[in-house]
Design brief:
Shape: globular
Strand content: 15-25%
Largest sheet: 4 strands, parallel
Structural class: alpha/beta
Radius of gyration: 16 Å
CATH architecture of the largest domain: 3-Layer(aba) Sandwich
Order of helices and strands: EHHEHEHEHEHEHEHHEH
Number of domains: 2
Length: 213
């Protein structure tokens, strides 16, 4: 069993399980999902990340103690991933590092879009010389803003701007972009470069490191 941690608080079970279901359907993995408490806007800056880290650590430890054989932290900033790895003896997968490693596989210049003021450090560090640039779409301050039509249109414009600036592929530095199926939105807008979804990427690495493998 894989434990997936959502870093935003939901009461709707369907929303809690959304990322897990995407991964389950694509990679045929057994996943249980839980969200941290009192984090209604998720992680979108240093303050909200610091607030979330101890909650993620506690939840990850509880999931490991309950029998999970792998933990996914479904957030592109990889919050608490290093800390969890030092505290539990099962694999801990972060969305941001997973997406970045997928991007490195073809060596293309990678444009990144996200919801934070600056690109998540784990993504920029992992991409290294392949990092082309970062944009936060206009009007996007947290993951909930991605749900609106205007937020999704802003994502399309940001991607087009990154491509115009030389990006050969696009990495989504927010797992909420998987929630809104941003890949499909961009494809419908004739974006033809490779698109790297962090939820898809974390599922890929989870499928490799799970005990089933």
């Amino acid at each position: 069993m894989i434990g997936l941690i959502r870093v935003i608080t939901f009461s709707d079970v369907k929303l809690i399980n959304y990322h897990g279901n995407l991964i389950r359907n694509k990679y045929n993995l057994s996943i249980v999902s839980e969200c941290i408490k009192n984090q209604d806007k998720g992680i979108h800056d240093d303050v909200t990340e610091r607030k979330a880290v101890p909650k993620i650590i506690d939840l990850g430890k509880r999931m490991a103690d309950s029998g999970c054989d792998l933990i996914i932290v479904s957030c592109a900033a990889d919050p608490a991933v290093k800390q969890l790895r030092s505290r539990i003896d099962i694999p801990v997968i972060g969305a941001g590092s997973s997406a970045s490693l997928v991007a490195l596989a073809n060596g293309k210049r990678t444009g990144v879009i996200g919801i934070t003021e600056e690109v998540p450090a784990i993504i920029k560090e992992t991409l290294g010389v392949h990092f082309q640039g970062y944009l936060r779409p206009d009007g996007i301050d947290n993951t909930n803003d991605l749900l609106s039509k205007s937020g999704q249109e802003a994502c399309v414009q940001a991607v087009k701007q990154l491509i115009s600036g030389g990006a050969e592929q696009i990495l989504f530095a927010c797992t909420g972009m998987g929630t809104i199926n941003l890949k499909d939105i961009l494809n419908a807008n004739h974006i033809e470069v490779p698109l790297i979804d962090a939820v898809d990427a974390e599922g890929l690495f989870a499928s490799f490191y799970s005990k089933r493998n």
